[in-house]
Write a structure and sequence with these properties.
By secondary structure, this protein is an alpha/beta fold. Helix content is 44%, strand content 12%. The protein contains eight helices and seven strands. The strands form two sheets. It has a five-stranded mixed beta sheet with strand order 4-3-5-6-7. A two-stranded antiparallel sheet has the order 1-2. Strand 3, helix 5 and strand 4 form a beta-alpha-beta unit. Helix 5 crosses helix 8. The longest helix has 18 residues. It starts with a helix and ends with a strand.
Length: 197
C-alpha cells in the first residue's frame, strides 16, 4: 500500500498505547466517516490541548492552569508528598479519592536498558522540595517492576538523609503492575496498607 496520509495516520496511531494497526485503522475510518460530528471536534480539542495544557511547576501534573488545580487546592495536606513516575499515576490515584496530599512526578524510572540514569529524572528537585521543610512523609508510589524497585531503592538511599519519613505502597499492587492499569479497589487497598521503608 502506498504511503498516503491515511496510511501515515494509521501507522502513527498504531504506535499509541493500547492501539495496534487494526484498531488504528478502525479509528481512522470511523473519524473519516464522521468528519463533522467527530473528526473536526477532535481536531479542535487537540489544538486546544496543545495550546493550553502546561506542566505544573510544583508537582509536574498537566493542567490548563499553573500551578495545577491540585497544588492550588488549600484542602490538600501540605506535609505529605506522593512520588510517582508519570502524570498518569496521579490521575489513577485521584480516581480513588483516597489520597489528599501533594504529588511529585519523577518523569520516569531508572532503567539501565533504556539508558535512563538519575540525572534524567527530577530527583534533585525532589530532594530540594523535601529539604525546604514542611514535608513529614514521602510516599514512594512506584510500580513493582524491576525498574520501579531499582528506582525505589535508589530514592530510599538518597531520601534517608532528609527529615521526612519514607513509605511505599503495600504489596496489594501486583508484581509487574502499574498504577495506571489497576482498578480503584486495588489502589485503595495498597494505599491504606502502605508501610515504612
Amino acid at each position: 500500500m502506498e504511503n498516503t496520509p491515511i496510511e501515515s495516520l494509521i501507522q502513527f496511531l498504531s504506535r499509541l498505547p493500547g492501539l495496534g494497526p487494526r484498531s488504528a485503522a478502525r479509528m481512522v475510518l470511523f473519524l473519516l466517516n464522521k468528519k463533522q460530528s467527530h473528526l473536526e471536534p477532535l481536531l479542535d480539542l487537540m489544538r486546544q490541548v496543545d495550546e493550553q495544557v502546561v506542566p505544573c511547576p510544583i508537582c509536574g501534573n498537566l493542567d490548563t492552569q499553573s500551578p495545577c488545580h491540585l497544588c492550588r487546592d488549600e484542602r490538600r495536606q501540605k506535609n505529605i508528598v506522593c512520588v510517582v513516575p508519570q502524570v498518569a499515576d496521579i490521575w489513577a490515584l485521584e480516581r480513588t479519592r483516597i489520597y489528599k496530599g501533594q504529588y511529585f512526578v519523577l518523569g520516569g524510572l531508572l532503567s539501565a536498558l533504556d539508558g535512563i540514569g538519575p540525572e534524567d529524572l527530577k530527583i534533585n528537585s525532589l530532594v530540594e522540595k523535601i529539604n525546604k521543610g514542611g514535608i513529614e512523609e514521602v510516599i514512594l508510589a512506584l510500580p513493582l517492576t524491576v525498574d520501579g524497585q531499582t528506582t525505589l531503592h535508589y530514592l530510599a538511599e538518597i531520601l534517608k538523609q532528609t527529615p521526612a519519613k519514607l513509605s511505599t505502597l503495600a504489596h496489594g499492587v501486583p508484581v509487574g503492575g502499574e498504577l495506571d492499569y489497576l482498578d480503584e479497589g486495588t489502589i485503595q487497598t495498597a494505599f491504606k496498607a502502605r508501610r515504612q521503608i
